[in-house]
Amino acid sequence: MPVPQRGHVESVLRDREEALVSLILNAWEGSAPDRARHEFKRTNRCIVHDHIIRCIRTTFLGQPGARIIEKHETAYLLFDDTLAVRIKHGDRNGLGRNNHTQASFAFIDADAELWELPMGLPDVQRADIAYLLNAFETKIEAILVTGRDGDRVLWSYPLYPRAAKPVAVLPFTPKPPVDPSDVLRIPSEADDKSGEKEAG
Question: Which of 32, 100, 23 shows the shortest CA–CA distance to 54?
């Protein structure tokens, strides 16, 4: 099984980074009304995962070089027939969290044999794309791409906020210091009263 190489993964995902980030952020925002009705983290993560699968279809279905492989209540993205990724809720290290199934073990184990992989998934490099939440799980703090071997992180790099669209900022030209002699001072009410006292 090919060990995931960061250089290769970055090159395959480079032109797809913005689409992947938008997909995940849109899935998170789209799931908000459903998440608001539930209290358990596990339930909310399943809801987000469901929205991610829907967004994967709308974003990458029919796109050149992209193939969606849906198996075992999840979806893998195969890019350029050389890289398979899955989108998961992740821990602080960027490792996708999931139930420990035979399919998930096969995906994350760099030594897994071809026949152990989820049906339909080819023998290619694999990586996790993991979204990380804040402590209150109210917003996405980061999205990481992680190469792994089991529970060991081989490498990791951020897609978000790095790949987020920059906020448009209007051009700003600093003004020179103001000359005190050019300032017109308007007397305050207190000045008027003090003047009245002096006059009396």
Answer: 23
77 three-state secondary structure: strand
CB–CB of 77/58 below 8 Å? Answer: no
SS3 50: helix
> What amino acid is encoded at 46 in this protein?
C
pLDDT at 38: 87
Per-residue HEC secondary structure of 164-197 comes to CCCCCCCCCCCCCCCCHHHCCCCCCHHHHHHHHH
Can you tell me the distance from the alpha carbon of 93 to that of 149, in angstroms, rounded to the nearest whole number?
Answer: 13
Q: Whole-number mean pLDDT of the chain? A: 80
pLDDT of residue 60: 97
CA–CA separation, 51 and 21 (whole Å) = 14
Q: How do beta strands 140-149 and 152-160 pair? A: antiparallel
- The dihedral formed by the CA atoms of 45, 86, 19 and 154, expressed in degrees to the nearest 10: 110
Q: How far apart are CA 102 and CA 118, in angstroms?
A: 8
| Angstrom distance (rounded) from CA 151 to CA 109 | 9
